[in-house]
Amino acid sequence: MQERELELAGGSLHYTIEKEKAYITGFHGQAAELVIPAVLEGYPVAEIGKKAFLSKKGLRRITLPDSLEAVGDWAFAYCANLWEAVFPERNIRFGKNVFLECGCLTGISQRECGENERFQPELLAAAVRDMDAYYLLELPAVGSREWLSKWDARLAALLVAPDQEGYSRQVLCGEEDYGSTDLAAYISERRKGKVRLALLRLLHPRGLEAAFRKRLEDYLRSHTKGGEGDETWQVILREHGEDRAYYGLFAELGCLTGENMDGILADIGENDPEMKAFFLRYQKEKTGGIDFFDSLELS
Predict the structure, then answer these.
(1) CA–CA gap between residue 26 and residue 3 (Å, rounded)
(2) Closest CA to 150 of 134, 163, 166, 161
């Protein structure tokens, strides 16, 4: 089948026409944002083919057409800077590892998901980015009670997985993501992964059962500064120092205490002044016998 080409801003789209449908086979270029057309040469764009956008490291956002029916294996794998993929409001057939190693992916959304309070683009992205749960890539079901229950079940399984799990395989394969053969560093990174997912779920609590909420909160508190490990604090400090939702949750959960306050302020130093001011005010209000978060509503 002869491959054809369409010039777009930032590159060229490659495709074929088969059985009165268009199939995207590849993209050449460095575009940061792409909107795939719904029609090519009068034929509906039905599929993004296998490895079509493999390793397109410049790609940050892609919008897929309403005509789309399927996405092939590894279609967006190793797109290291892809942060959002926007799909039509319909069921899409997904192949294997469509978003493999897309570490910046923060949202898999639908065109009108802003009008659908049920849809959970952040949780969906985390399911494939961090949880190896491609079975949750079911667009019509996203955000339903059953879907959220499956998401929580997967997170529950990850929480109880031994922190050293996979370490021997890493050493044998010579991988260096966690500091080569440093077991302590490996365990800490595993815990940070669990912390990120727990924080995300608490910030998107729709359908979250009380017992599982407590379990997530307990895990985060047990890994704050001065605890079993300080991974909760390290994630907040290194990744969310400018995000009030995250460091506010950190304080609200009781991860900020009288015992660790001085150490936390020392860690912040001259960085993240808004977070530092927030924590100082929190300490003042708390020691003054005033509910800090109620005071925020009054101020």
Answers:
(1) 10
(2) 134
pLDDT in tens, 188-227: 999 999 999 999 999 999 999 999 999 999 999 999 999 8
Q: Rounded to an integer, what distance in angstroms lies between the CA atom of residue 220 and that of residue 233?
A: 9
- Confidence (pTM): 0.89
* Strand, coil or helix: 294: helix
Q: Are 224 and 230 in contact (CB under 8 A)?
A: yes
CB-side neighbour CA atoms (13 Å) of 170 = 17
- Within 13 Å of residue 242, how many CA atoms lie on the same side as its CB? 1
The string of pLDDT tens digits covering residues 52-96 is 999 999 999 999 999 999 999 999 999 999 999 999 989 999 999
Amino acid at residue number 134: Y
- CB 34, CB 62: distance < 8 Å: yes
Q: Which of 275, 242, 244, 245 is nearest to 261 (CA)?
A: 275
**Beta strands 93-94; 70-71: pairing state:** parallel
